[in-house]
Amino acid sequence: MPEHIPVDEAVAIGIDFGTLSGRAVVVRVRDGEELGDAVHEYRHGVVDRSLPADGRLLPPDWALQVPQDWRDVLRKAVPAALAAAGVSADQVIALGTDFTACTVLPATAAGAPLCELPQYADRPHAYPKLWKHHAAQDQADRINALAEQRGEAWLARYGGRISSEWQYAKALQLLEEDPELYAAAERWIEAADWIVWELTGVESRNQCTAGYKGIHQPDLLPGSGYPGRDFLAALNPGFADFTEKIDFPLSPLGGKAGGLSPRAAAWTGLIEGIPVSVGNVDAHVTNAAARALEPGHLLAIMGTSTCHIMNSDRLADVPGMCGAVRDGVVPGLWGYEAGQSGVGDIFAWAVRTALPEGYAREAHERGIGAHELLTEKAQAQPVGAHGLIALDWHSGNRSTLVDHHLSGLIVGLTLDTSPEDVYRALLEATAFGTRVIVDAFERSGVPVTDFTVAGGLPKNAFLMQIYADVLRRPVNVIGSEQGGALGSAIHAAVAAGAYPDIHSASAAMGRIRRDVYLPDPERARDYDLLYAEYRELHDHFGRDRLAGGSNVMHRLRALRAQARTAQAADARTANARAANADPSTPATSATPATTDLPASRADLDGVPA
Ligand SMILES: Nc1ncnc2c1ncn2[C@@H]1O[C@H](COP(=O)(O)OP(=O)(O)O)[C@@H](O)[C@H]1O
Ligand SMILES: O=C(CO)[C@H](O)[C@H](O)COP(=O)(O)O
């Protein structure tokens, strides 16, 4: 830590790059006090309908982002946070970042995103693929099938299935749908590492994304630590050298990646050369902020999605986990990750699609949000009174089924069912989904001793009480509304040498409120009954396809892909006809992309209903 800054005045900045916005927080290094913050909403948000460059439609399940939106966070949110905190740039001892993951992009060896090269701006595959890009499920299925067939030891570290959200599935999709761009991509890099490259001018790779999203398991995979050339070639001969695009020395979490470059100093208003910590993931970095680093302390970071992150001194193969990675959260422990791809997203879907006009008016008149109104109405009823069970798979299932071709379900609808009934059933479904994950840990010999929540959803007290009742456990709450950014500031403080390690920095700067919600025995008993019903539906639609269950969700998705592909082809033909008839007619923005995906026949054929 620089000696010229009095210890009480030293601050670190943490920047949390989320799904829709980036948030910078100025944090006092001595005690973690948050002095000021600012948010910058991404101009393009999630690009999931049409490409910004030319308006071409994207196929279903795509989710892209625009790197300039991330740079704008540095340019706008950092100076605004400094101003809000009332501190000057020379008090800032270090900067740390965290990012959604696996959010990954093709880049040149100099770090230029391919989508920023004019010749590739109209190619969907040139853009960063956001974590919730779910269009590489076919590739993920093939990776899993091959790994299983070859008895690859690393597969069990990922719960027996890697997700279509991860680096390999997304890269294989790039190769197979746009081979020219794949060849042009000298780097396949997580946004978590790319932003650090932008900040420092130094290329680095962090151990967290490499392990969880990049299948880096050095004790199982000799050499680079990544799956070997023969495995990659068996997936697709053109994929044999994929490792060259990702293999780079890994840096430990809490380490210094480099000093702030002159260019980034000009963007942010900070002083050139201050330490920038190694990249990290929004979920994993939050454990430090919540003082949830000790073995068995599970942190659920609940927002658009939920990530469950827990350290353990034990290594076990937990079915359906996202990954177990040595040093993946803090050096010296095994870090486990599990998750639910849709949580807040599902509640948002309910508000978007099932809020009657009268409810919207009431919320408006009372000056409250739709979530608050639906929550208030939903909490008036006893457990089970809505007669519903929902499955929380609107965005697929990341753990424990690891299948993004699954979809949501609500059973028990009647003509009496109200919007708040549906909303409550969805809240409960996400709690049941978390219970499946906690049960999987415990059954595999990885005890869960503490359960803490962070993220944007703990503000919903009723939701938190449902979690306490369904899990039959006390729920602790992080003492910060910006856990990711606080966690990043904690890592920055370590990188600057203000603390010897992440544990001591977390103890001094992190915050937790213990036992905020306690389970109610009666409600917990009633929820056990609903959970049993949830498990039955879960296994029927998600697990037991080959043992009497139903594959209907896969078949519906395949039919949807076929229908949309046909619709896109019709639109192309109509557009071409119009252009031939009148050569001055411009191509409309409804002209579909060249990336229309073929429907997967495998999803339609040969699987019992
Ligand atoms: N009171 C509420 N109750 C339940 N869900 C909410 C409430 N307010 C917002 N949400 C949901 O929370 C999500 C945003 O969570 P947040 O943690 O702020 O964002 P992110 O995960 O992108 O960082 C949205 O999907 C929104 O639908
Ligand atoms: O999988 C992740 C981390 O491993 C994603 O970053 C996460 O699910 C997205 O986070 P959020 O819901 O907060 O936007």
TrEMBL record:
EC number, UniProt record: 2.7.1.16
Gene3D superfamilies the UniProt entry points to: 3.30.420.40
Domain Carbohydrate kinase FGGY C-terminal: 299-496
Membrane-spanning segments: none
Class of enzymatic activity (EC top level): transferase
Comp. bias intervals (Low complexity): 564-600
GO molecular function, one term: ribulokinase activity
InterPro entries assigned to the protein according to its UniProt record, in alphabetical order: ATPase_NBD, Carb_kinase_FGGY_CS, FGGY_C, Ribulokinase
UniProtKB keywords: Arabinose catabolism, ATP-binding, Carbohydrate metabolism, Kinase, Nucleotide-binding, Transferase
SUPFAM superfamilies: Actin-like ATPase domain
Residues covered by region (Disordered): 564-609
One Pfam family of this chain: FGGY_C
Domain of life: Bacteria
CC annotations in GO: cytoplasm
Pathway per the UniProt entry: Carbohydrate degradation; L-arabinose degradation via L-ribulose; D-xylulose 5-phosphate from L-arabinose (bacterial route): step 2/3
Catalytic reactions of this protein: L-ribulose + ATP = L-ribulose 5-phosphate + ADP + H(+); D-ribulose + ATP = D-ribulose 5-phosphate + ADP + H(+)
PROSITE patterns per record: FGGY_KINASES_2
Cleaved signal peptide residues: none
GO biological process: L-arabinose catabolic process to D-xylulose 5-phosphate
PANTHER family: FGGY CARBOHYDRATE KINASE DOMAIN-CONTAINING PROTEIN, RIBULOKINASE
Family listed: Belongs to the ribulokinase family.
Protein name, as recorded: Ribulokinase
Organism of this sequence: Streptacidiphilus pinicola
